[in-house]
Amino acid sequence: MQIQAKRPTPSVEIIDTPRERPPRPFQLDKLTSIPFFLVHIAAIASAIWIGATKTDIIVCVALYYIRMFGITAGYHRYFSHRAYKTSRWFQFVLAVIGGSSMQKGVLWWAAHHRNHHKFSDMSEDIHSPKQDGFYWSHVGWILSNDYDHTEWDRIRDFAKYPELRWLNRWHWAPALIGGAILYAIGGIHWFVWGGLVSSVLLWHGTFFINSLAHVWGSRRYPTTDTSRNNFWLALITMGEGWHNNHHYYQSTANQGFFWWEVDFSYYILKLLSWVGVVWDLRTPPAHILAGKEPVRESMTDAVSDVISPPVPPAALPTA
Ligand SMILES: [Zn+2]
Ligand SMILES: [Zn+2]
Hints:
Bound molecules: zinc ion
Mean pLDDT: 86
Distance between the termini: 20 Å
Helix content: 40-55%
Strand content: under 5%
Order of helices and strands: HHEHHHHHHHHHHEHH
Oligomer: single chain
Shape: globular
Strand order of the largest sheet: 1-2
Largest sheet: 2 strands, antiparallel
Number of domains: 1
């Protein structure tokens, strides 16, 4: 049964929304959690065992940021928020790069993210540190077997592409193929540093936006959630650390709203727009920058109900 959301009155204060349901049941999903913990152990043990060359570190950092771009510009700004437009082939490329970060399927990710915006920090929000604690918001919800399904209702707009449904189903494929390529080119050193270590860092770098970015930082806009702006998180996530900006106005290709708010995902998107790979990058209008748009429910609903218009349920996949 769907619990009806009680949206708090907008205010500059962070409003305490009481829990409207019992604590979430936490049962580890074996298919997700065993590889998750094994990769952590393997990354730490093998990194210590084989050590690192200068090239290993460069490969590790490069693959961290390339795949972070797949998550931020792809999974997040494009698939979740449709903050810009691109071709079908490049949307597939973004989904593959994002997929290689082992954060489950693109449609699964984007659908759950739309849910996060619709219910930010309310009891229906599936990864709110305010509702369910830091650990739950960071990794608990991902490792739980309760949220492993794709919420097709929230991602109808992209579910119509068979290649995306395929990637969503076989979401381990890009990482497995990528790992094999790394091993073929650079042997065990590239596999460990470019694959295992880089992936562990990438997991936590990304997950910090669900956990730390709702706890640590400043609040420019009076959103009805706990989202924060944080320079350090923006550096490690290529711009996603401007999370309060983003919660205030979600549909923009840039999340750093001012020149001093570093946002490398946006800089790359801008470069790609100059060569015609992406286009129609949405940016915040002046009254948004000035914080003059009152916080209201429709700003949040826009990401889920408007851009994912109703289609007959029979047209949606079941798995
Ligand atoms: Zn978002
Ligand atoms: Zn958030």
